[in-house]
Design brief:
Structural Genomics Hypothetical 15.5 Kd Protein In mrcA-pckA Intergenic Region, Chain A; Pseudouridine synthase; Alpha-Beta Plaits; EC 5.4.99.-; RNA binding; isomerase; 3 domains; rRNA pseudouridine synthase activity; nine-stranded mixed sheet; 6 helices
Length: 247
């Protein structure tokens, strides 16, 4: 009697093949970029097996791609996604010369700028985004108002946001402008919930006016201008993996 083929959800199969993270695989499916046995699939939860012919943008899932890793300086007003159904500019629009199907590791808000890792290595992306791993990310935040150290201390103690207890953050006030009633704060966190930095500062009464990520683990934006990118060095990849596994 032949053994039964193992089924798995389509987005998981795409992620396991290294084409995209599971979150971005779901975006690709919803946008109509994925076919199974010649049929376009736009619904989540479809089950597939190793015998199904799966293609993403016409490329078979089992077709090996060279693993690519980049540091990208995301400009403001750019979507951290592979596609956008509203026709807005996405981060992948800056990588037209890269033939592999890369995608962002995590997100930066549309109106935020700064360091974003781009890759087509699903295991690497999932490792960096998994909540149990603790790779530090450093942000520079411009807020409305000039908080005292006491007002900032809840960031260090661990806020409750959306009924979720956040891990303690590190902060440093860089400057303030009494005439404009604004301050610049450096914030270091290792989590990555949706709109986390904005929610943290809103919770303590200082809304974010401008936000930029300047560091991800050992990576910085040195030598890059908004919209530019560079390949990750092998030692940088290893350092990120080591930090994630240590966390």
């Amino acid at each position: 009697m032949p053994s039964k083929l193992t089924e798995e959800r389509l987005q998981k199969a795409i992620a396991n093949a290294g084409v995209a993270s599971r979150r971005h695989a779901e975006e690709l499916i919803a946008a109509g970029h994925v076919t199974v046995n010649g049929n376009v699939i736009t619904e989540m939860g479809v089950k597939v097996t190793s015998e199904d012919a799966i293609e993403v943008d016409g490329v078979p899932l089992n077709q090996e791609e060279k693993k690519q890793y980049f540091v990208f300086y995301k400009p403001r007003d750019v979507i951290s996604a592979v596609t956008d159904n509203k026709g807005r500019r996405t981060v992948t629009d800056f990588f037209e010369d890269v033939k592999e199907r890369i995608y962002p590791v995590g997100r930066l808000d549309w109106d935020a700028s700064g360091l974003l890792i781009m890759t087509n290595d699903g295991d690497f992306a999932n490792m960096l985004m998994h909540p149990s791993y603790k790779v530090e990310k450093k942000y520079v935040v411009k807020v409305q108002g000039i908080p005292t150290r006491d007002k900032l201390m809840p960031l260090k103690d661990g806020l409750v946001v959306d009924r979720k207890k956040l891990a303690p953050a590190k902060f440093k006030q860089i400057s303030s402008d009494k005439l404009k009633n604004t301050a610049i704060i450096q914030l270091t966190i290792h989590q990555g919930i949706n709109h986390q930095v904005k929610k943290m500062f809103k919770a303590i009464g200082y809304p974010v006016m401008k936000l930029a990520r300047e560091q991800y683990g050992p990576l910085t934006l040195e030598g890059l201008q908004p919209g530019e990118y560079r390949p990750l060095k092998r030692e940088e990849i290893r350092a990120l993996e080591a930090l994630a596994q240590k966390g």
